[in-house]
Amino acid sequence: MATLADVARRAGVSTATVSRIINNSPKPVADALRERVLAAVAELQFVPNANAQQLARADRTAVGVIVHDVSDPYFAEITRGLQRVATDHGRLVIICNSYRDPERELAYVDLLHAHQTAAIVLAGSGYVDAPITARLDGKLRLYQSTGGRVSVIGRHEHAGDAVVPENEPGGYLAGDALYRLGHTAIGVIAGPRHLTTTTDRLAGLRRAAKEHGHRLGARQVVYADFDRNGGAAAAATLLAQNPGLTAIAALNDSMAVGALACLRERGIDVPGEMSLIGFDDMPISVDVTPPLSTVRLPLEEIGVRAMTLALREGDRDGPLVEHAAAKLVLRGSTGAPRG
């Protein structure tokens, strides 16, 4: 088993320098030197002394949570669950908004490591980007090697505890519901293409289309930001590209609300002329007119489960992966197509 001295020799630095880098000391270290030491750590598969890890962990009281945007209703619900568990355990929660910027997310992991948080929870989607994913995984593994706990929400490539929402099955439920109602001309308002949440939900819709003897062509899918304005703009594009459209599936409720506003402005009756279904079942889903059909995820419960995993003490045989089921909720915004 490699020692601190082995890492120092491989990197050509002192043991004190290695210690400062792996423990994210606030003392400045040149980037090139840091990269050399981290490369040596990876090559030698160095793992710090378990007793030192436990000692460090005992002094940690804060927990870091990295979300894409806490003002987004999806993350607000998840964060409520995360904070509830953290408060019950006497922990301070540090919330970091990455705004779906992977570089910012990487920087936050370093920052939370430097502040010696007890755990980090990645509450946002994974990225369809192999280099970014590898860098993030490396930083999280280094954080874990110094005593930190990690849990993630969603499909990430990091090998650790995870709560995985059933995004692909949920996408299937939405598509299957529309096809069973008799729709064949269906448009999709997808989220950002670089997020695994988008690709998984869209994969479920494509599976439903194939099962019903149809396919979703390129003109039937418009990618947009996961917010109201993105949904409104994408709905306008779908209508322009697909004159015969009878149904729209939005991959989150915020985008569905934007699509509903777009349809209302154009005098298109929902569900008489156009059916609309969302995803997540945000509280606003029952407040719009007509009430929004959607796919429900237990978002607050997902937050509770992710923080519980992050704060679980004791040795583990391996990473724990829990799944959060999706459920179809049909309301007033969907119906059979005319004719």
From TrEMBL:
GO terms for molecular function: DNA-binding transcription factor activity; transcription cis-regulatory region binding. InterPro entries: HTH_LacI, LacI/GalR-like_sensor, Lambda_DNA-bd_dom_sf, Peripla_BP_I. Residues 2-57 form the HTH lacI-type domain. It holds the Pfam family Peripla_BP_3. The keyword DNA-binding applies. Keywords: DNA-binding, Transcription, Transcription regulation. PANTHER family: LACI-RELATED TRANSCRIPTIONAL REPRESSOR (PTHR30146), LACTOSE OPERON REPRESSOR (PTHR30146:SF153). This is LacI family transcriptional regulator. It comes from Actinoplanes nipponensis. The lineage of its organism: Bacteria, Bacillati, Actinomycetota, Actinomycetes, Micromonosporales. The gene is lacI_6.
